[in-house]
């Protein structure tokens, strides 16, 4: 019997299967998953709920759409350009997503198909074990948008793939394929696209039957590395939100809407 966990969003659903695996599934089925304002808030709240849920033994984050999750929808970004309150709200939620995944007592597995961007990329890479399809596309597009790389990147990319690679990909907004992501250590495993869901589910099942105390203790201990990097994360998040009030961010959003390269030199004049 599958149980559903109520969430106040249509961006994803959460189902708990008979083996105690909570499936956080990005939606819509067959469409392009994104996070709107309600979805971003729900994504910030869900981790503490699942951590405390007595029937959840492991969490599997996956998608039934064309991609894993393409990040925040433009309406939310537009609001952040003009509203200090919106920037403060999104900053709190971004902090809660990262903190919630780090502090979640249950092991988290991600199955990354297609594009993973923005909040979707944060969830994909903050999972304890990340499995990517070879043709997946991991994109941290912050600097192309004209804002500092905030969200999750500064706290975890240097630990996963090293400072040199982190600076290269984050500063240049280079797309990382699933295959390249595994080669540089950004994800745990890479598999063929048709094997992705089965492989990630098998890992989640193995975790679900493991010792809860042993797994929680191992995760909590390893995540002290992330807690040590928390000041860097806070600095990056503050820089990102400050940048959303600047001309470069307005130019970056306009360029996306007009499907052209941004001209930050013109924007800064």
Automatic annotation (TrEMBL):
Q: Record's superkingdom?
A: Bacteria
Keyword annotations for this protein, in alphabetical order, are: Lyase
Key word Ligase present:
no
Q: Where is the signal peptide?
A: none
Which Enzyme Commission number(s) are on file for it?
Answer: 4.2.1.17
Q: Which InterPro entries match?
A: ClpP/crotonase-like_dom_sf (IPR029045), Enoyl-CoA_hyd/isom_CS (IPR018376), Enoyl-CoA_hydra/iso (IPR001753), Enoyl-CoA_hydra_C (IPR014748)
Please give the CDD domains that the UniProt record associates with this protein: crotonase-like
UniProt xrefs under Gene3D superfamilies: 2-enoyl-CoA Hydratase, Chain A, domain 1, Lyase 2-enoyl-coa Hydratase, Chain A, domain 2
What are the recorded GO MF terms, alphabetically?
A: enoyl-CoA hydratase activity
Q: Which family does it belong to?
A: Belongs to the enoyl-CoA hydratase/isomerase family.
- UniProt-listed PANTHER family: ENOYL-COA HYDRATASE, ENOYL-COA HYDRATASE ECHA15 (ENOYL HYDRASE) (UNSATURATED ACYL-COA HYDRATASE) (CROTONASE)-RELATED
The cross-references to NCBIfam families, in alphabetical order and at most eight, read:
PRK07327.1 (NF005595)
State the name under which the record lists this protein. Answer: Enoyl-CoA hydratase
> Which organism is this protein's natural source?
Noviherbaspirillum saxi
